[in-house]
Every structure is written in structure tokens, then in C-alpha cells.
């Protein structure tokens, strides 16, 4: 039994990827059926543009990378908390606070981009403290705290930005009342450098943010897989009581995990708004960007390296979804993604089945090998007996 | 005085969806299934019932028999929500999937499905479904004369059938949960499913029932929210499903406490939107856009109270853990 268990634990990486790929395949098939039902005439062309647009031109590919960068960050945020057994539904709030601090640094204080990005990180980490602390000290469910702090964060940011006249687009000669200044006018130094990539890709969406996000993913991977601290975090996620028994400070780890998770989400906000292509709009609704980290993390089964690929995939089909308009509404993408997550919810089951199938095959092979060995041993024994008899 | 009537009336109006949905969440969690999909269930309930109301309006049945039309719409809301909730039950009971993840998927599916369906039915770019005006209960409906007094201003400012049903549903849920065999069994499944199973309770069926009831109530709550929020459905319930989840925890998974919690939260929310016209509230004159302070208030106050009452807060013990007969 012990041997069997060890063997099935050795498998998960391949089966995880396979389970995710199966989920993606089924999700896309559901999407295809749906668009056929809605409008059979335009369906074929629309589906092809859904799955090919992202690679069709360097311009579109740049857009995929541009959207993938913040998705990687929010995906890392949600995934990191998952590893510690926490559900960080507050990535939206942390993302919002991170964005706001980055923009305040950029516009109000005219700081360069890397300082703004650091501010974004600090902002996100700060907003992550609350769910962590409330969970550790008062045992308030982190899901509820996160939801409350999403709203508190959004309203605070709106309040603060409204009271900083310099922050608004109007101060810099913009026409709109309801959004922050265009960074191109307010402080070009705060824009994330493009290093000629925009010329190369022929798109002004292109900058180095995707590389920054990948570096963060690598940092998260090293932290989780190669350090004692990461091991402690994961131990708390698997079994909190056991880890406390083993001398791990679970409360400290809960807070730290949420702070790091928040920092990732904050950087996501910074990367998005410091690219200079979008301006923060003062609306009374939560930003969806943070919530999009949840499917990304689930699809990657919380693995930091997997997050890079799943964020890329989600961004890719979002760009494809935009290309399906106006024949189809882009929310079809959300349906496809939600089907994928629904399937990922019982990925465990799929994974078990896959592992069991593999196990069967391995067991069969092992049995055969054992039988062969036995047969060989018997044959040798017989031969020895025969030889002995002959010698006599 | 009329402002006071307005505030009370609006508080009740916004309290109803929170109450219904939080009670729904309570049934699901008491049976052992974390229902984070309440938001999605509300959207589906609101979507189907609003489409149904449009259909009634155009077919002529609605304007002729407004309250019957509304009654059927409530049924549509309840059963569409319940059907949608079965997707969660299937994932979490049969497939033993992670309940939070399944719920998140449904939350993402619902608004997208609503937008796609609204487009498909009403044509490109038409993302709002208007609610017919006959859905409201007025003095005329029950045949009394219009008078300018406090009582009528309070009652008829925004009075819908959902409010009446919410009162009945509240009483029924409290009785069912505490005074019936079904309620006892349901609670047992959320606390110690192995023990419940050992005395012959079908845990799977109980959890299905819990999620189904949460779908019924969540669906009606979705309709109630849409009626409260304005004159049209726009494929969203603005985070009310999540708020209801908070209200449920705030209400400690008990009907009476949930009633109090939803009233409390709705009152603070309405104070925010009426802050300009209430004389005794501070105005923060040197701060721009000070309405955000009041908009933030219900969330801050709920947070403080959650911290203060956290010692007494006790979630159903087995919630979130898939029940596996083999692991008894």
C-alpha cells in the first residue's frame, strides 16, 4: 500500500496538465455548440477567429501579452493563498489599492515607474493584511473579510482620488470628469518602459510588463517549492493542526500568506495602469480584473509556473472573443471559462481516474515483470537442480 | 416625516433580498454545502423571472391580472434559481468537488449567460430587460383611497408581492429548520454527516435538498433585488449574493439573527444613499464626494461587528467537506 501511494504521488504533474487540457477542450466544445445554437450562419467564422486571432498578427499577440501580465499577477495572488488553504476572493480590492497607490505615485508625486510599481506592491500587501489578520486573530472567515474589504477599498480609492484634483484627467486638460489623468500627459516617466518592443511588435500595447510578471511567477515558485517558509505555508494548507503540532506558527503564516498574495495582486494593478493604455475610472462597481485571477489560478491548479500558461490562455481567448463581435457578444468567453472551471472543480476526480488508469497499467506491467522474474528464478533453480543431479 | 417613511420603506425593500438569499444560504450551509454561488443563483432567478414578466406583459395577461402575473413570476424565479443550484449540488455531492471552486464557476457563468440570453432574445446590444410597471402593489390594487399620511407613504412607496412572501418564507424556514424532522436531519448532515448516516439519514439527499432550497430562496431574492434596484434587469445583482453570504455569517446561521443582520445592513446601506437629505448626519463639507464615506459605512460596520461577535460565531462543523460514504 505504501509503495502504491508513493507511486501515485509521483504522477500529479502530468495528470494535472492533462486534466486542465481536457477541461479546456470540453469548454471550447461547449462554446462552439453555444455559438452554433445562437447563430449558425456566422458560427464557423467566429469560432475560427476565437481560436486564431491571438496569433494572427503581432499586434494582436502584443494585446494578448499586455492583458496576460496583470492576469498572471492576480492568478498568482489567488493561487498563492490557495496553497496555504485560504481563498483570496479579495484580489480585486488589493488590485484596486495597488493601482491607486501606483497612480498617486505617478501623478501626484511624479515618481518613476519602478517606484510606482513598488508602491503598488505595498498597497496590495497592505490590503492583504486585513483578511489575514482577522482570520488569525479573530477567526473571521477570510472570504467575508475579503468581500467587505473589496468594497471598502473601492470606495476609499474613489474618495481619495476625488479629493486630489491633480489626479483627475481634467487637471491635465482631459475632457472626462470621471477618470484619472492620462499618464502620457501627466508623467511619461511613470510609464513602464517599452524598450523598443512596441516598434518591433507594431503595437503600443507592448511593454516589458509580461517579463516582470513572469519574474514574479518564478519568485513565487522558488518561494513555495525551494524554501522552508514555502514548505511551512503549504503544510498549513494541507493540515493546519498537524503543522501546528509540528511547531509551525500557523497564525503568522496565514497573515504572511495573505500579505504576499495581496502584494502580487497589487503589482497586477500597477502593471495594468502604468502601461498607460487604460485610465482608472471612478465607478461604483468592483473591478473585474481581480476576479479573473480566480479562473487563472484554478486552471493552473495554483502552480506559479502553470499560472503563466493559464493566464496566457485566458488572455488569448479574450482577445479572440473580442474579435467575434459584433456577431456574438464577448461574454461567451466567460461562459467557456466558467465551464472550464466547473470541470476543474472535479478535476480531482478526473485526475484520480487518470491516475488510476495509469496505475492499472503500471500494476499490470509490474505483475508481468514479477511473473517473469519468478519464472526466470524457477527456471534457474530447476537448471541448478539439473546441473547438481548431473554432477552427482 | 416623509423622509423617515421613505427611509423605512427603502430599508425594507433592500432588506428583503438580503433576508431571502441569506436564509437560502443558511439551508445550504446547514446541510454541509458552502454555497458561494448565491450571487449567480440570484442572477439566474432575476433573469428568468424578468423575461417571464416581459412575456406576460406582451401577452396581455400581466396588465389584466397583475398580481397573478407577479405570483407566477416569483414561482419562475424560485424554480429557475433552484435548477441552477442543482449544478452546484451535482458537483459538490455526486462528484465530491471543491465547493468553493464549483460556486465560483457558477458565479461566472450566470452573468455571462444572462447577457448572452438577453442579446439572443432582445437583439444585439439590448442588455437590459425592463420590468413592467404593473408589478408594483399600489393603493389601487387593494382598493383603498390614496391618502398623504405616514403609513401609506411607508407601505406603498415601493411595495411588491415579494415582500409579503418574504414574511411567510421567514416564518416557514424558522419552523422547518427547528421544529420538523427534516430540519433536524438537515442540521445533522451539516454537523456530523457520518453520525446522521449511521442512523439511516440519506446524507446525499439531504444535501441536495439544502442546496435546492437555497436555490429557491436565492432565485426569489434575485427578483426582489431587481425590483428594489430599479426598473430594469441588467445582468447583475451588484454583489448582493456575496453580501447575503456575509449577512448569513453575521447572523450566525440562525434565522432570527439573519433577520436582524439583514435589517441592520440594509438600514446602514440606505442611510448612505439618503445621507444628503437626513438633517442630523454630519455633512463633511470640506471633503469632496463625501457620499463615499456613507457608501462605505455598512461594510465597515459589518466588519467591526463580525470581529466583536467572532467568539460566538460557529459555522456548521462539516460545511465544505464532501461527504464520502467510504470514509465513515
Description:
- The complex is a heterodimer of chains A (392) and B (328).
- Chain A is mostly helical and 392 residues long.
- Chain A has one domain: ABC transporter involved in vitamin B12 uptake, BtuC.
- Chain A has helices spanning 2-10, 12-38, 40-56, 58-83, 91-108, 113-138, 142-162, 183-186, 197-201, 209-226, 228-238, 240-245, 250-274, 288-291, 293-299, 304-323, 332-345, 347-391.
- In chain A, α5 crosses α13 and α15 packs across α16.
- The longest helix of chain A is centred in the last third of the chain and has 45 residues, at 347-391.
- Chain A is globular and about 110 Å long.
- The two termini of chain A are 46 Å apart.
- Chain B is mainly α and 328 residues long.
- Chain B has a single domain, classed as ABC transporter involved in vitamin B12 uptake, BtuC (Orthogonal Bundle), CATH 1.10.3470.
- Helices cover 69% and strands 1% of the residues of chain B.
- Chain B is built from 13 helices and 2 strands.
- Chain B has helices at 2-30, 38-59, 61-64, 66-94, 99-122, 150-156, 161-179, 181-191, 193-198, 203-229, 240-250, 255-273, 291-308; strands at 129-130, 232-233.
- In chain B, strands 1-2 form a two-stranded antiparallel ribbon.
- The longest helix of chain B has 29 residues, at 2-30.
- Chain B starts with a helix and ends in a 20-residue tail after the last helix.
- At the A-B interface, α7, α15 and α17 of A face α5, α11 and α13 of B.
Amino acid at each position: 500500500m505504501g509503495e502504491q501511494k508513493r507511486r501515485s504521488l509521483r504522477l500529479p504533474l502530468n495528470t494535472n496538465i492533462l486534466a486542465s487540457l481536457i477541461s479546456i477542450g470540453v469548454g471550447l466544445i461547449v462554446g462552439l455548440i453555444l455559438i452554433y445554437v445562437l447563430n449558425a450562419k456566422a458560427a464557423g467564422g467566429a469560432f475560427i477567429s476565437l481560436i486564431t486571432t491571438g496569433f494572427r498578427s503581432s499586434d494582436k499577440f502584443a494585446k494578448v501579452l499586455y492583458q496576460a501580465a496583470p492576469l498572471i499577477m492576480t492568478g498568482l495572488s489567488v493561487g498563492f493563498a490557495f496553497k496555504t488553504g485560504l481563498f483570496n476572493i479579495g484580489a480585486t480590492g488589493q488590485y484596486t489599492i495597488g493601482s491607486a497607490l501606483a497612480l498617486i505615485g505617478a501623478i501626484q508625486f511624479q515618481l518613476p515607474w519602478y517606484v510606482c510599481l513598488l508602491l503598488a506592491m505595498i498597497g496590495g500587501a497592505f490590503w492583504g493584511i486585513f483578511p489575514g489578520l482577522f482570520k488569525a486573530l479573530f477567526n473571521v472567515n477570510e472570504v467575508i473579510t475579503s468581500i467587505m474589504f473589496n468594497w471598502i477599498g473601492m470606495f476609499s480609492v474613489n474618495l481619495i482620488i476625488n479629493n486630489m484634483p491633480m489626479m483627475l484627467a481634467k487637471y491635465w486638460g482631459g475632457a472626462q470628469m470621471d477618470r484619472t489623468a492620462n499618464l502620457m500627459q501627466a508623467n511619461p516617466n511613470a510609464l513602464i518602459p517599452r524598450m523598443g518592443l512596441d516598434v518591433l511588435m507594431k503595437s503600443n500595447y507592448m511593454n516589458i510588463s509580461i517579463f516582470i510578471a513572469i519574474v514574479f511567477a518564478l519568485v513565487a515558485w522558488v518561494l513555495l517549492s525551494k524554501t522552508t517558509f514555502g514548505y511551512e505555508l503549504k503544510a498549513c494548507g494541507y493540515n493546519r493542526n498537524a503543522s501546528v503540532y509540528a511547531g509551525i506558527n500557523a497564525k503568522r503564516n496565514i497573515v504572511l500568506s495573505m500579505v504576499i498574495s495581496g502584494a502580487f495582486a497589487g503589482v497586477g494593478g500597477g502593471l495594468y495602469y502604468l502601461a498607460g493604455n487604460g485610465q482608472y475610472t471612478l465607478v461604483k462597481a468592483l473591478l473585474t480584473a481581480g476576479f479573473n485571477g480566480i479562473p487563472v489560478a484554478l486552471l493552473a491548479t495554483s502552480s506559479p509556473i502553470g499560472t503563466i500558461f493559464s493566464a496566457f490562455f485566458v488572455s488569448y481567448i479574450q482577445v479572440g472573443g473580442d474579435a467575434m463581435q459584433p456577431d456574438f457578444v464577448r461574454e461567451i468567453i466567460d461562459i467557456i471559462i466558467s465551464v472550464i472551471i466547473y470541470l476543474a472543480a472535479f478535476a480531482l476526480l478526473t485526475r484520480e481516474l487518470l491516475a488510476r488508469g495509469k496505475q492499472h497499467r503500471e500494476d499490470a506491467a509490474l505483475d508481468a515483470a514479477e511473473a517473469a522474474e519468478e519464472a526466470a528464478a524457477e527456471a534457474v533453480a530447476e537448471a541448478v537442480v539439473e546441473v547438481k543431479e548431473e554432477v552427482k | 416625516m416623509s423622509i423617515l417613511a421613505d427611509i423605512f420603506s427603502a430599508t425594507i425593500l433592500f432588506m428583503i433580498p438580503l433576508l431571502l438569499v441569506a436564509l437560502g444560504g443558511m439551508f445550504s450551509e446547514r446541510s454541509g454545502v458552502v454555497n458561494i454561488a448565491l450571487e449567480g443563483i440570484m442572477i439566474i432567478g432575476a433573469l428568468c423571472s424578468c423575461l417571464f414578466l416581459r412575456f406576460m406583459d406582451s401577452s396581455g395577461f400581466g396588465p389584466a391580472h397583475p398580481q397573478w402575473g407577479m405570483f407566477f413570476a416569483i414561482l419562475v424565479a424560485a424554480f429557475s434559481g433552484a435548477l441552477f443550484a442543482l449544478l452546484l449540488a451535482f458537483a459538490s455531492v455526486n462528484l465530491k468537488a471543491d465547493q468553493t471552486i464549483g460556486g465560483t464557476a457558477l458565479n461566472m457563468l450566470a452573468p455571462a449567460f444572462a447577457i448572452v440570453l438577453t442579446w439572443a432574445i432582445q437583439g444585439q446590444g439590448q442588455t437590459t430587460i425592463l420590468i413592467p410597471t404593473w408589478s408594483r402593489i399600489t393603493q389601487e390594487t387593494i382598493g383603498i383611497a390614496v391618502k398623504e399620511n405616514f403609513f401609506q407613504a411607508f407601505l406603498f412607496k415601493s411595495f411588491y408581492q415579494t415582500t409579503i412572501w418574504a414574511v411567510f418564507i421567514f416564518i416557514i424556514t424558522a419552523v422547518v429548520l427547528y421544529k420538523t424532522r427534516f430540519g433536524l436531519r438537515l442540521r445533522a448532515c451539516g454537523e456530523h454527516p457520518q453520525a446522521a448516516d449511521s442512523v439511516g439519514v440519506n446524507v446525499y439527499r439531504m444535501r441536495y435538498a439544502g442546496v435546492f432550497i437555497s436555490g429557491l430562496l436565492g432565485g426569489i431574492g434575485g427578483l426582489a433585488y431587481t425590483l428594489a434596484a430599479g426598473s430594469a434587469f441588467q445582468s447583475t445583482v451588484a454583489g448582493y449574493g456575496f453580501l447575503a453570504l456575509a449577512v448569513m455569517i453575521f447572523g450566525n446561521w440562525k434565522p432570527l439573527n439573519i433577520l436582524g443582520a439583514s435589517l441592520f445592513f440594509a438600514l446602514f446601506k440606505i442611510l448612505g444613499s439618503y445621507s444628503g437629505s437626513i438633517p442630523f448626519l454630519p455633512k463633511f463639507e470640506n471633503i469632496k464626494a463625501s457620499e463615499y464615506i456613507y457608501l462605505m459605512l455598512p461594510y465597515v460596520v459589518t466588519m467591526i461587528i463580525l470581529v466583536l461577535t467572532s467568539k460566538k460565531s460557529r459555522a456548521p462543523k462539516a460545511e465544505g467537506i464532501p461527504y464520502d460514504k467510504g470514509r465513515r
